[in-house]
Design a protein that fits this description.
It is built from 15 helices and 12 strands. The protein has helices at residues 26-36, 72-83, 96-99, 104-110, 135-142, 161-186, 196-203, 205-209, 250-259, 276-287, 292-299, 312-315, 319-324, 362-368, 373-381, and strands at residues 17-21, 40-45, 63-67, 87-90, 115-120, 190-195, 232-236, 242-246, 306-308, 327-329, 335-337, 385-386. Pathway: Lipid metabolism; bile acid biosynthesis.
């Protein structure tokens, strides 16, 4: 059985069996979220000859089964595994799984309770369904990219967080949990078509629904929340670090002005758009006169909505994050964010073990899913599976 801590039995997704077909960024995050909250996640890897090293750095709590889906015996093995699984997550472009004989029509007929999650950039239908793409392309097609960037600059893609991980991995995980909830009533599985374009567009619902409020009436980079306002901006400190300012409401803005040592009566009104560029320069010159630590000592006890921009090196040791244990350390000493949100009764208990080697748990998983030792030996002789001895890697 899957080796987990005793606390695993109390986790929200305990007992849920997930098969995650190895892929890039979004699918591994989706699988890791489910594993963190108690699901038994098996990452189905390609054989190591065709995947020299796993590209999954989000394998916390997962086990690895190395299976060659291009061989009929490998595809048949996955089909059988899906008969005993609750969830399948697959990352391939439209039509790939069907060519392997592993499409939802086949698998759901054999296991009507299966949640078949398809996580792709452009979705299962439409002009681009079979096209390649990356986060920046999905972000562009969603309309969101057009809103990101500073004044008189090209649109700016903020690394690959929005489409890949938020619109893709997180949205797909939400879809899976929703489908599992519905299955508890109907007893039936279903297919999830998780498109990163649509996922990140859905995330931007506020942008769409607030258009009539005037929040986005100016060109890109000149609005209240997109770096146009001096009181919603990032400023450099004297030691080369940064402070983030988000003093939107007048009562918070007043505290910002006080902390900066300015007199409100001697300044233009907060919402005087024409004065924003000059106010930015004024704020920047003041922030540049003190270190980040000095500004923290001024603003930490206020409601000015001013916080330090923490580096990855500093974030885990910040007092607030330390008090909440917001970051965790695994057995290798690597620091990463704790699973969120925090559940009061059945919280996530993330694994602290190292990530699995490709094929490390192949035999263990196949036995668990009902394969006999003889069947496993035959799959091995057919070169459809692979075992990995972790001791050889130490």
């Amino acid at each position: 059985m899957c080796r987990r801590s005793p606390a695993a039995a109390a986790m929200a997704l305990s007992g849920v069996r997930v098969l995650e077909l190895a892929g890039l960024a979004p699918v591994p995050l989706c699988g890791m979220i489910l594993a963190d909250f108690g699901a038994q996640v098996v990452r189905v890897d390609r054989l190591s000859q065709s995947a020299a090293a796993s590209e999954d750095v989000q394998a916390r709590g997962k086990r690895s089964l190395a299976l060659d889906l291009k061989r009929p015996q490998g595809a048949a093995a996955l089909r059988r595994l899906c008969g005993g699984a609750d969830v399948l997550i697959e990352p391939f472009r439209h039509g790939v799984m069907e060519k392997l004989g592993l499409g939802p029509e086949v698998l759901l007929q054999e296991n009507p309770r299966l949640i078949y999650a398809r996580l792709t950039g452009f979705g299962q239908t439409g002009k681009y369904a079979k096209s390649a793409g990356h986060d920046i392309n999905y972000l562009a097609l969603s309309g969101v990219l057009s809103k990101l960037g500073r004044k008189n600059e090209n649109p700016y893609a903020p690394v690959n967080l929005l489409a890949d991980f938020a619109g893709g991995g997180v949205m797909c995980a939400m879809g899976i949990v929703v489908a599992l909830f519905e299955r508890a009533r109907s007893g039936k599985g279903q297919v999830i078509d998780a498109s990163m374009v649509e996922g990140v567009a859905y995330l931007s619902s506020f942008l769409w629904k607030s258009q009539n409020l005037g929040l986005w009436s100016q060109p890109r980079g000149e609005n209240l929340l997109d770096s146009g306002a001096p009181f919603y901006e990032i400023y450099k400190t004297s030691d080369g670090k940064f402070m983030a300012v988000g003093a939107i409401e007048p009562k918070f803005y007043n505290q910002l002005i006080k902390g900066l040592g300015l007199n409100l009566d001697e300044l233009p009104t907060q919402m005087s758009f024409s004065d924003w560029p000059e106010m930015k320069k004024k704020f920047a010159s003041i922030f540049a006169q003190k270190t980040q630590a000095e500004w923290c000592s001024i603003f930490d006890s206020t409601d000015a909505c001013v916080t330090p921009v923490l580096s990855f090196d500093d974030v885990a040791s910040h007092q607030h994050n330390k008090e909440r244990s917001s970051f965790i350390k695994n057995d290798q000493g690597e620091i990463s964010p704790r699973p969120a949100p925090v559940l009061s009764r059945t919280p996530a208990v993330p694994s602290r073990k190292r990530d699995p080697f490709i094929g490390e748990h192949t035999e263990e998983i196949l036995l668990e899913y009902g394969f006999t030792k003889q069947e496993i030996a035959k799959l091995y002789s057919d070169k459809a599976i692979e075992f990995k001895n972790p001791k050889a890697n130490l």
